């Protein structure tokens, strides 16, 4: 049986104020084309279909279009909710959609009830484990301590119990949305840490043939049988080194897994560049990034004038500007209170300007600061008299 494993669509999300809905629609078209041209038997979507619990109407319309196009192919789709989704909203109409071959699994209580599909070699049981928020599901799974490992282990116990009761040779696929040990996170995933621990060991998923993971945005292989597809599009500059793909997985008659990465269409490359403003504007080695979405980190010791306007003349798609001035290291032992001791409001404000801009205020700016502090003190005095 051939599976197409994808996740983390985040429909409705933007990238640094750039709307991604058009790129997301292109991805859906690519997904449908891949299903048709690569003879896919089942599509699995491992959560974070939407970017937020109440998605914008345009994102809902795109999701509806995706479901109709997948259903029209006659290829079953199994889908779970992620930590960005509202499980209740995503699961509305699940029973009716199931009749069209779109199987939504959003209820924790149904973890041990699979979607059973068949090929020439017998049955394959697909178990959907939606994102399990420990504090909300610990009673459902009868665990004493609300933690990710505990609730996922209990959910997998239900999976293994159901699988053991099925005919010998039944193959198994688990969809899960979680942070599994060994995975490499990026800046665009929402933190799911509970009690200081977010990751669960891969051993939690022992006993099944393939685990289709969602949550982390980089495509990753934890073991031959446990993989993240990653997000089909970038959602932070920390993903600049990612190759955005889906997994095309062949599940043999004996449960053996072989997998191939299928590239996704990305609207524009990402680039992180660093240096002084003049270096970035002059460096010929950066020519290849002139049409990329750019995050520029400026190391000028003094903040230059109009840096964004000047950068966009060469890199018109600069979206993020970070200042990290090259300065002499300060005493790390000096506490904030010690550094302020003996300094009046005027001196503290002038130091703040120097810290942010790289150079202190000029005489005119000092006068403006002094007048502002004088006005505040005068206002305080009036209030005190009024009391």
Automatic annotation (TrEMBL):
Entries under Pfam families matching the protein: Metallophos, SbcD_C
Keywords of the record: DNA recombination, DNA replication, Endonuclease, Exonuclease, Hydrolase, Nuclease
Domain Calcineurin-like phosphoesterase span(s) in chain numbering: 1-218
GO annotation (BP), single: DNA recombination
Domain Nuclease SbcCD subunit D C-terminal per the UniProt entry, residue ranges: 267-355
Molecular function terms, GO-annotated: 3'-5' exonuclease activity; endonuclease activity
Keyword ATP-binding: no
InterPro entries: Calcineurin-like_PHP, DNA_Repair-Maintenance_Comp, Metallo-depent_PP-like, Mre11_N, SbcD, SbcD_C
Subunit field text: Heterodimer of SbcC and SbcD.
NCBIfam families, per the entry: sbcd (TIGR00619)
Family note: Belongs to the SbcD family.
Biological function: SbcCD cleaves DNA hairpin structures. These structures can inhibit DNA replication and are intermediates in certain DNA recombination reactions. The complex acts as a 3'->5' double strand exonuclease that can open hairpins. It also has a 5' single-strand endonuclease activity.
Protein name, as recorded: Nuclease SbcCD subunit D
Biological source species: Streptomyces calvus
Gene: sbcD
């Amino acid at each position: 049986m051939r599976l197409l494993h994808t996740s983390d669509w985040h429909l409705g999300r933007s990238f640094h104020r750039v709307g991604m809905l058009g790129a997301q629609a292109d991805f859906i078209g690519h997904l449908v084309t891949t299903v048709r041209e690569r003879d896919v038997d089942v599509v699995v979507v491992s959560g974070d279909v939407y970017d937020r619990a109440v998605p914008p109407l345009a994102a809902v319309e795109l999701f509806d279009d995706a479901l109709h196009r997948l259903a029209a192919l006659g290829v079953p789709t199994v889908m779970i909710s992620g930590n960005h989704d509202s499980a209740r909203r995503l699961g509305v109409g699940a029973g009716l959609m199931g009749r069209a071959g779109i199987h939504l699994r959003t209820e924790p209580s149904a973890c041990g009830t699979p979607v059973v599909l068949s090929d020439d070699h017998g049955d394959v049981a697909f178990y959907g484990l939606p994102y399990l928020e420990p504090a909300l599901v610990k009673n459902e799974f009868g665990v004493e301590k609300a933690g990710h490992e505990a609730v996922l282990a209990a959910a997998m116990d239900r999976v293994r119990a159901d699988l053991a009761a099925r005919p010998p040779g039944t193959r198994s696929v688990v969809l899960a949305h979680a942070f599994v040990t060994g995975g490499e996170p990026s800046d665009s995933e929402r933190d799911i840490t509970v009690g200081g621990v977010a990751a669960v060991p891969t051993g939690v998923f022992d006993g099944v043939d393939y685990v289709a993971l969602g949550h982390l945005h980089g495509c990753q292989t934890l073991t031959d049988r446990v993989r993240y597809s990653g997000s089909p599009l970038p959602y932070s500059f920390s993903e600049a080194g990612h190759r955005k793909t889906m997994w095309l997985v062949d599940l043999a008659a004996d449960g053996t897994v072989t997998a191939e990465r299928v590239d996704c269409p990305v609207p524009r490359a990402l680039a992180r560049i660093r240096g002084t403003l003049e270096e970035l504007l002059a460096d010929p080695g950066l020519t290849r990034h002139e049409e990329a979405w750019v995050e520029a980190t400026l190391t000028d010791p003094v903040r230059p004038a109009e840096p964004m306007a000047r950068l966009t003349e060469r890199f018109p798609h600069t979206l993020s500007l970070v200042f990290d001035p090259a300065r002499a290291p300060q005493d790390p032992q000096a506490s904030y209170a010690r550094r302020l001791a003996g300094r009046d409001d005027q001196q503290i404000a002038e130091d703040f300007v120097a810290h942010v801009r790289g150079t202190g205020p000029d005489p005119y700016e000092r006068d403006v600061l002094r007048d502002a502090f004088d006005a505040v003190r005068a206002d305080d005095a009036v209030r005190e008299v009024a009391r």
